[in-house]
Amino acid sequence: MALDIVFGWHLDGFTYPETSTGKDFSLGSLVVGPAGLAQQLALRLGVTKPFLPQAVRIANYMRALEQIDDGDQFYSKSFALDSWSTASCLLVMREQLISAGWDGNPVTQASRKLLSFSAVEQVVFPLGSPSETLRAIL
User: Which among 7, 9, 15 has a CA at the least distance from the CA of 40?
Assistant: First the structure.
């Protein structure tokens, strides 16, 4: 059985009619954007992970940041003032790094920030993020 996919960069939200052009439609086609396509590929490849709400992911990342924070990390002052917001912002940066191809391992002659991110990766367990799913698909 063939999988008929209609893909459009803007089709991850609710749209009607569900088509790439907004004019034509067909029954039985899967209409998806980038996130929907990644989800379907992960499902068919068997690399899906349980969904974790963003608040849980931030809390897990905050605990990992806390474990390596020795007061001399690049985020230490901000983390001492507002640990939740700092963890949230750093989690976004982590997702961008992973989406760009970083595997979490230390990089030779890395900056202080990247070394901190690498240290956090050693204590945080997989967070079930979209970027991790994309990495598993690739």
Answer: 7
Q: State phi, psi for 129 to the nearest 5 degrees.
A: -85, 160
> Measured between alpha carbons, how far is residue 24 from residues 2, 15, 16, 61 in Å?
20, 13, 11, 44
Distance, in Å, from the CA atom of 127 to the CA atom of 130, rounded to the nearest integer, reads 9
Q: Is the distance from CB of 12 to CB of 38 less than 8 angstroms?
A: no
Give the containing element (helix H, strand E) for 68.
Answer: helix 54-68
pLDDT over threshold 90, residue 76: yes
List phi, psi (to 5°) of 25. Answer: -145, 160
Question: What is the H or E stretch that residue 116 is in?
Answer: helix 112-123
Radius of gyration of the chain (CA): 19
Phi, psi of 49 (to 5 degrees): -125, 155
74 vs 51, higher pLDDT: 74
pTM of the model: 0.74
